[in-house]
Amino acid sequence: MSKELIRLRDCVMSYGDELVLDHINLYINDKEFLTLLGPSGCGKTTTLRMIGGFLSPTSGDVLFDGVRINHVPPHQRAVNTVFQRYALFPHLNVFENVAFGLRIPKAEPSGRKVKLPEREIQERVMEMLSIVNLKGFEKRPVSALSGGQQQRVAIARALVNRPRVLLLDEPLGALDMRLRKDMQNELKRIQQEMEITFIYVTHDQEEALAMSDTVVVMDGGRIQQIGTPEDIYNEPKNAFVADFIGESNIIDGIMRADGVVEIFNRKFQCLDKGFAKDEPVDVVIRPEDVDIVDEAAGQLKGTVTSVTFKGVHYDTIVDFYGFKWLIQTTDFCPVDSRIGIKIDPDGIHVMKKSEYSGMFGDYSSYSEEYEELDVVEDESQEGEGDDPWEDGYEE
Ligand SMILES: Nc1ncnc2c1ncn2[C@@H]1O[C@H](COP(=O)(O)OP(=O)(O)O)[C@@H](O)[C@H]1O
Ligand SMILES: [Mg+2]
After folding, report:
1. 226 & 269 share domain
2. Protein residue with least CA distance to atom 27, ligand 1
3. Could you list which residues have their CB under 5 Å from ion ligand 2?
4. Which domain, by its residues, includes 198?
5. pLDDT per residue over 95-122, tens digit each?
6. 15 alpha carbon to ligand 1 midpoint, in Å?
7. Fewest C-beta in 10 Å: which of 17, 36, 49, 76?
8. Could you give the CA distance from residue 382 to residue 367 in angstroms, rounded to a whole number?
9. pLDDT tens digit string along 153-172?
10. How far is the CA of 33 from the centre of ligand 2 (A)?
11. Which residue ranges have their beta carbon within 6 Å of ligand 1?
12. Which of 168, 202, 233 lies at the terminal end of a domain, its last residue?
């Protein structure tokens, strides 16, 4: 395993009364691809700017290779940044945009300023253009490039100085979907080829899962979870993470024993352990982990309220006792049909209650978006006859 390169220790950032980062603790390993993921305003850019040296934390420490660098300016850090707006020089061609940083004389420890020999500049720029697949474009004006090509120039320019760490703040935000996917693969390849650390900011969870070794999920200036993409998806720590990453049904449950959780008065086997007996919990069930069966054979029984064809599967919204779940299935079940469902123990994930409990995970509004197209729902029917608490139905 690679060694630790950067550490944020208890970093707080506040502007007047506004707490923007609330005790951020995080380390980043050498050669890691780490992504800060969260909704707009959660503090991603602020965190990145602290690492880049554009901001110093109000309190806490930024460490690089174990050395405190809180007040070291950006150009003295082994870090470079690619911004969302590429900030290329419009009057320079591709080669000169990439060469720009190399042409600035560097101060030696003695204070003497030295220029890189032209031959070395040539070699290094051409090497970078080859890495970002822009060989043959050196003479082009950057204004004659596509968005994706401009992005490559920005990346080449940031990497030509051989930083140990590249910071990328929503670098693909301006590109269309198709190009984004291509550039995601490109960036990952470049990071691996150059063996440097990438710290990447995005609000796009798919992008984060596809590219990262480690994902840091943030909300409200706080880190909600740090883990591999698989960890974050399969074992979300709370309802916020479960909702933000992928689609999730999040249901109130009660932990009756190790490996037994109760949902809607029914006991389900699960793999989760270590909760107090009868502890209220949040239960995450991913839409793809639900099997549709005959109503009679179902662990839960419900009514289909909407079906949307998605190509690979149907997004099927099912009303269970007034709570709407999203189920992704290749079985077509028409609206108004009664179905049963089964969930394997490993399709159930139990989480502690948190400040986010009850805020996410019901697909009522999701299905209403579809229903709006059909008929306006008749309010008088709501919850009628299918509420287990009302009916006192059997175990
Ligand atoms: N210079 C500033 N003064 C006051 N508030 C700021 C400043 N910079 C950022 N903020 C606030 O900090 C929060 C986090 O911002 P930011 O780090 O840019 O979020 P993100 O990149 O996740 O969208 C936001 O609420 C933003 O309004
Ligand atoms: Mg930002």
Report:
1. no
2. 41
3. 45
4. 4-233
5. 999 999 899 888 888 888 889 999 999 9
6. 9
7. 17
8. 14
9. 999 999 998 999 999 999 98
10. 18
11. 15, 18, 20, 38, 40-46
12. 233
